[in-house]
Amino acid sequence: MSDERQRVTIRELREMKGRGQRIVTLTCYDALFARLLDAAGVDVLLVGDSVNQVLAAADTTLSATLEQMIYHTKLVARGAARALVICDMPFMTYQISREDALRNCGRVLVDVGIPVMGHLGLTPQSVHALGGYRVQGRDAAAAARLLDDAQALADAGAFAVVLELIPAPLASRITKALTIPTIGIGAGPACDGQVLVLHDMLGLNEGFNPKFLKRYAALAEDVREAVRRFAAEVREGRYPGAEHSVEQ
Ligand code: KIV
Questions:
Q1: 245 occurs within a structural domain
Q2: Any ligand 1 atom below 6 A from CB of 49
Q3: What average pLDDT does the segment 141-152 reach?
Q4: Residue numbers of the domain that contains 187
């Protein structure tokens, strides 16, 4: 595919919901992967504040800073020609006041009129307040609150909402109730789209095994095997061979 392709817009996401066409979303933190995911036809690249968990072995997303998010968003935007790029607002960049949130969002985006995607259920920025990484909205009261919150986000103009770690029937109710798309992670099959953390679905992060995760590759083992072969060839003097060397 060429770089002439038009970038996916938030309007198109809503049209996809209308057509029943599922929205394919993956997290992404760099230009190299952005290029690969874009070429594979991913619709949305989410620059998640999971970046420090995935790349820096942090326990939670809380250490991600706005500066980091801006940096990674620039890299992803550089690599992606078609996919819509969305940047997570990290912990304490939007909670203090509306003005603060707007100022911080404005630092990420160059255009005025900042499109916002909501995030409900297990919100990693509130992991301690929620008592850890656990399924949200299990009882009737919590489910009703999530439904109200989802409607409030849509009414406030959010263009989509991520539903993370909630029961599938609740995600289905929310998806049916909203005119904006829902993107699920651990929220069952009825959502308008699905998102996974790229490194988890590629099998690079072997220590993370939640029920919702499906691995589509086993790259951690591929990496170890490639490095073992390289190490063996270096130690045995088999690399570089004549074909990798310049004689004069
Ligand atoms: O930060 C992140 O990667 C996310 C996804 C898990 C949805 O919010």
A1: no
A2: yes
A3: 97
A4: 10-237
